[in-house]
Amino acid sequence: MKKPLVSFVKELRTSKKIFTFDEASIKQAVVLRLLSLLEWDIFNVEEICPDFSSDASTVSFALRIDHAGKVLIDVKRDQEDADGFHKQLVDLAAREAFELCVHTDGPHWWFYLPSAKGGLSQKRCHVIDLIEQKPEDAAADLMAFLSRERVAGGGHLEAATAAHQSQKRKMATEFLPEAWNKVLAGPNKILVEILSDATEKLCGCKADPGVVEGFIRQHVAQWLLSDTARDRESPRRPEGDIPPADPPAHPDKSSDIKGKKPEFFADKSINSFTFQGNTFPVKSWEQMLTTLCNHFAATNSQQFEKVLWMYDDQQPCFSRYSDQLRIPEKVRKTNIYVETKLAPEEIVKTVGDLLTEFGHGHEELVITTQ
Predict the structure, then answer these.
(1) Taking 80 as the threshold, does the pLDDT of residue 369 lie above it?
(2) What is the pLDDT of residues 109-144, one digit of tens each?
(3) What is the rounded distance in angstroms from the CA atom of residue 24 to the CA atom of residue 76?
(4) Residue 34: which of 14, 9, 61, 11 has the closest Cα?
(5) Would you report the helix, strand and coil content of the chain in percent, each value rounded to 5?
(6) Which helix or strand (DSSP H or E) is residue 345 part of?
(7) Closest Cα partner for 331 from 298, 285, 299?
């Protein structure tokens, strides 16, 4: 299924005809062609119902399995009021008990989860761009959300729900800096009390709330975040090259992961790790994980895709879709993301699985903690 799908997406990207199609042409030359490649019987009107109507609304296609509504797909080129007809589509899908709804203008595909709480933006779970995305990634997305096999087995809903939850967590993470600024900039009795109590512990005298508020106002400008982007990548190095460095002067404890269970590292802070005889200082467990991922991707470029089958308690550790992870980090020179929102013991387990996957013994990795 995937190879013909990838070939068709490449064809669309190359020819650029998709930008000249009217709605009727998009339905026939793009949507139905894709559904056929996704193993739907496009001649079976019981499963692909054209011009599905409800009340005064009509949608291009309704995908059904055993007469049960599964997915609504609407084709519209007009972009002037996209939110308006997205909302109409979502409302219709909710009324008619469809599990997923999609709007496409040909190149772009917007996916919504009608059952999700919140406004329109909070119901959107995924977007596919057939032109800008790599054809392999676009094909994988289409298979996850729209293949007949996935829809019949409920896998499309699982993919949409996972993408939606990931989107919500990602949104919360993105709003943290703004929340921080709001806490600092506005009146905050809890912050005033914390500073006042801390002052009392230091000198035996509790600072007056008015004095604390004045102190906060005086210094708040330097505490506010202006650049909230998270710098997750260390400086670029040659492919596969992780520069050796001197070990910490006073390491508290070094342990190879062969002799310790992952739980041993819970609640510990990492100073450095040693791999293949070289020691690398790191500031966090996540940095060790991403550094090793970048190394293995560079030294095993043809086999690195194997990580996509690594799971932790049924949650993927790696994915081609950042929306499926809570805090994704892109592995250098790949189209694969690694989950970084993991506890220390989970990171150690993931790293151990990586070592095993690429033919290294667990004794080759020594972690220095405090």
Answers:
(1) yes
(2) 999 999 988 888 888 899 999 998 999 999 999 999
(3) 9
(4) 9
(5) 45, 20, 35
(6) helix 344-357
(7) 298
Residues 118 and 9 in one domain: yes
Q: Which two tokens stand for residue 211?
A: 């004095």
Residue 64 forms part of a structural domain: yes
Q: Is residue 181 part of a domain?
A: no
Q: Which residues pair with 329 in a beta bridge?
A: 338
Instruction: Bin 313: left if φ > 0, else alpha if -120 < ψ < 50, else beta.
Output: left
Listed in sequence order, the residues at least 6 apart from 266 whose beta carbon sits closer than 8 Å to its beta carbon are 343, 344, 345
Phi, psi for 265 (deg, rounded to 5): -90, 0
User: Is 206 in the same domain as 155?
Assistant: no
Domain region containing 60: 2-164
The reported pLDDT for the residue numbered 166 is 82
Q: Do 308 and 319 touch, CB atoms closer than 8 A?
A: yes
Identify whether 268 is part of a domain: yes
Mark whether 14 and 147 lie in a shared domain.
Answer: yes
> Distance between CA 339 and CA 241 in Å, rounded?
22
CA separation for the pair 315, 281 (Å, rounded): 29
| pTM exceeds 0.70 for this model | no
pLDDT digits (tens, 9 = 90+) for 254-300: 677 777 888 888 888 999 999 988 889 999 999 999 999 999 999 99
- Judge whether residue 233 has pLDDT over 60: no
Bridge partners of 62? Answer: 49, 72
Contacts of 136 (CB under 8 A, 6+ apart): 2, 6, 335
